[in-house]
Design brief:
The chain is an all-alpha fold. The protein contains 9 helices and no strands.
């Protein structure tokens, strides 16, 4: 008697939908941050949160060394970015990217609730102003990283691997440029916008 053999069907996954993956990670971690802030409770947010009226009032008239602030932000932002880029050339690139994006999203969700509890609707507006315009550049930087790390999944088995590798390096270089522009905006443009807004509320 002939033995029957069963073949497991193979499905082609194609390219990983990296934009949907990044968006889902951001939204999930953002709402997790909101839930975490609500779990912390109103009293802890007011007691330990930085967004209270006294602290915000001090920011309106504080003198800031833009050059020193740039160097501080450069060290903070570039460390995370460089870590993602380094892991981007390994099999852990996607995990590193999602971890950093998720942390930013979680912090943003927590910050929005903190601002709402401490300052009400004006606090929400204050957070939005504090994110402009540099976070537009940061968003573009990590979208470019997503294109370099997640956008080429499945292309490694194709004969044009060298071409894809060059394109990945180009995406990383473009992401680095967006990051540097964002750091400059956060250091030299955003403080003036933030002070102007605080003095009006």
């Amino acid at each position: 008697m002939k033995r029957r053999t069963f073949k497991v069907p193979r499905y082609r996954t194609g390219k990983l939908p990296w934009k949907a993956v990044l968006a889902a990670c951001f939204l999930l971690c953002f709402f997790t941050g909101i839930l975490a802030a609500n779990w912390a409770g109103r009293e802890k947010l007011i007691q330990y949160g930085m967004l209270n009226e006294y602290y915000v009032g001090q920011l309106a008239y504080a003198d800031m060394d833009a050059g020193g602030y740039f160097r501080y932000l450069f060290g903070q932002r570039v460390c995370k970015f460089a870590g993602v880029v380094i892991f981007g050339f390994t099999g852990f690139g996607a995990a590193a990217l999602l971890l950093v994006v998720g942390w930013y999203a979680f912090s943003l969700g927590y910050l929005f609730v903190n601002a709402l509890v401490c300052m009400g609707f004006q606090g929400m507006l204050l957070v939005l102003v504090s994110l402009f315009p540099h976070y537009l550049c940061y968003g573009l930087a990590y979208i470019r990283l997503g294109a370099g790390i997640l956008g080429g999944k499945g292309a490694q088995r194709e004969p044009e691997w060298k071409k894809w590798s060059d394109m990945r390096a180009a995406q990383f270089a473009l992401a680095a440029l967006c990051l540097l522009v964002g750091i400059w905006m956060e250091s030299y443009i955003n403080p003036g916008l933030l002070k102007s807004f605080i003095r009006r509320i």
